[in-house]
Amino acid sequence: MVTTRASRTDVFRALADPTRRSILDLLRRGELPVGSIAERFDTTRPAVSKHLRILRGALLVRERRDGRLRICELNTEPLKQVDAWLDEYRRFWSVSLKRLKRHLEAGVGTRRARD
Predict the structure, then answer these.
(1) Of the residues 59, 64, 76, 105, which has the maximum number of CB atoms within 10 A of its CB?
(2) Dihedral angle computed from the Cα positions of residues 20, 24, 25 and 27, in that order, rounded to the nearest 10 degrees
(3) SS3 assignment, position 40
(4) In the prediction, which pLDDT does 2 show?
(5) What is the DSSP secondary structure assignment for residue 103, as one 8-state letter?
(6) pLDDT band, very low/low/confident/very high, at 98 (cuts 50, 70, 90)
(7) Considering only CA atoms, which of 94, 64, 100, 57 is closest in space to residue 78?
(8) 5 vs 8, 9, 60, 112, 113, CA distance in Å?
(9) Are 22 and 8 in contact (CB under 8 A)?
C-alpha cells in the first residue's frame, strides 16, 4: 500500500531532529544528490541516509533515480498540514494577547484614576 499522506506525528518526529531540519533547509534551495547532501555533514553517509529515510517516510523528501544518482527534493505538502495546525495556535495567542493588552490597559486607567 502506498501512503499519500504523512501523519502529523511522523512529520513532527522528522522535524524534531536538527540534522533533518538542516537537510530540509538544503533542499529548499533545490534538489540535490544524496552524496552532495552527505558531504555537507560531519557524520557518516549511512547516518545521513537514515535521516533521509525518515524524511521520506514523513513524505517531506521525494527521491528519484538519475542514472546512478539518487536525487532528493523537498516536498512542502506535509509542512502545509503542520502550518494549518499551528495556525489554530497563532489565532489563540493573538486573541489571548489582545485580551491581556485590554486588561493591562484597563488596569492602568483604573490605577491612574485612583492616584
Answers:
(1) 59
(2) 140
(3) coil
(4) 44
(5) H
(6) confident
(7) 57
(8) 9, 12, 10, 57, 58
(9) no
- Alpha carbons 67 and 36: distance in angstroms, whole number: 15
Cell representation of residue 20: 533533518
Residue 74 phi/psi, 5° resolution?
Answer: -75, 135
Q: List phi, psi (to 5°) of 52.
A: -65, -35
Q: Where are the alpha helices (DSSP H) in the chain?
A: 8-15, 18-28, 34-38, 45-57, 77-114
Which tens digit of pLDDT belongs to each residue from 30-71? 999 999 999 999 999 999 999 999 999 999 999 999 999 999
The distance from CA 91 to its chain's CA centroid, rounded to whole angstroms, is: 19
pTM for this predicted structure? 0.74
